[in-house]
Design brief:
By secondary structure, this protein is α/β, with parallel strands linked by helices. It has three domains: about 160 residues, Rossmann fold, CATH 3.40.50.720; about 250 residues, N-(1-d-carboxylethyl)-l-norvaline Dehydrogenase, domain 2 (Orthogonal Bundle); about 30 residues, 6-Phosphogluconate Dehydrogenase, domain 3 (Single alpha-helices involved in coiled-coils or other helix-helix interfaces, Up-down Bundle). It is built from 20 helices and eleven strands. Helix 1 packs parallel to helix 6, helix 8 crosses helix 13 and helix 15 packs across helix 19. The radius of gyration is 25 Å and the shape is globular.
Length: about 475
Amino acid sequence: MEANHDFGLIGLGTMGKALLLNMLDNGNQVVGYNRTPSKAQAIEAETEGRLKVYSDMEAFVKSIRRPRAIMLLVTAGAATDEVIEGMLPFLEPDDFIIDGGNAHFRDTDRRLKDLTAKGFGFMGMGVSGGEEGARRGPSMMPGGTPAQYDRVGKVLESVAARFDGAPCVALMGHGSAGHYVKMVHNGIEYAIMQAIAEVYDVLHRGADHGVPEIADLFGKWNEGELASFLTEITHVVLQKRDDLADGWLVDAISDKAKAKGTGKWTSQDAFDLGIPVPAIDAAVSARQLSGYKALRGEVSAVQGGVTGVVSLNPDVVRDALLATMLLAYAQGLTLIRTASLDYGYETNLETVAKVWRAGCIIRSVQLEPIRAAFAANPDLESLLLDAAFGEKVRGLIPSLRSTVEAAVAAGIPAPVLSASLAYYDGFRSVRLPANVIQAQRDFFGAHTYERLDREGSFHAHWSDASGQ
């Protein structure tokens, strides 16, 4: 069999088929695999024979030129391992697999170690943009070796989203760097989505604005500094009429949000690394709380709901949302920086910001100045230390503070807005009350404490703490 294809893809569901067709339309010699013959034939017919789709794994693998590059877009976890095992008998040394699913980065580490020992390669690649992005131009975040990227870079760059002509795909670093960056991308996504929901809630329940009025605000905001994919789609969803009843569809949708786990993974690893990402943590908890709809109804019946209507300037709320968005990026990028150092990724944060500028879910006009900040100082420990970024956030904080105060006054939960403000206030505090915590820990567990005026660890005899 002649090996005349440059790239293979397994997993021709919504995302996989869209991405493979994108590759085909951009002049790439690609081939697909679907284990069900009738489905393989249907996809071939859909493309009028331009795309070859195999249902025989050996024939599929043998049709790809060496070193073979085969991408998976299948369900994360056991399903991915099953597909890999089914492919191994037909691979040859230096062939490599690209996992484009939302895998946990630890699973990527495990698969990389296992496949390397067998003489094969493995890349974990984050893909963002949904079905439309896959078909028209996604943002892609591969991790792996430069040689592997050289092998597949032309194909990936041909289909990636573009920002000022530059493809939104680049090597994120060694090992599981690609899946790690995508995981944090999703954590930031959680935070921004929740912040938008909180702003909607404060305006709707707190300030008594109607849905059409809020939709108009998001439309106007998307023309300025808040221009982003998530702002844009919020404008769209708030304009949707309910086809099954009178009113707006958003009012008929249940207030229980589901999650696939990537936000939780971000928080978990941030805790492991000792990096505060409170906006992401709060967003994860908010989704979890939304799941307790019945219990929330019972508690509300006992405790009461919204306490009152507040007056809010929409421009102030806009600036509060922008501040929260910027702080979410700052938290996530600091986490990636620390993970890169601890896990040996050698991730370039300017490159991360570059590939997020278009195609992905968290794309926004704010990512270009963030890219510029890391271009000017690649070792920037926090975006709050960049002069331009820090000045912008500082100017927005009064609006964030006012919006949080209004939410509190109205009895409306705003966990991400509040956590973002606390994060900012915490980092600008020269002194925090952790001295009290040190004293408490030493009191009940003799854990010792450190002093400001001299080096070393100390333990106090707290039973003598009479103030005399």
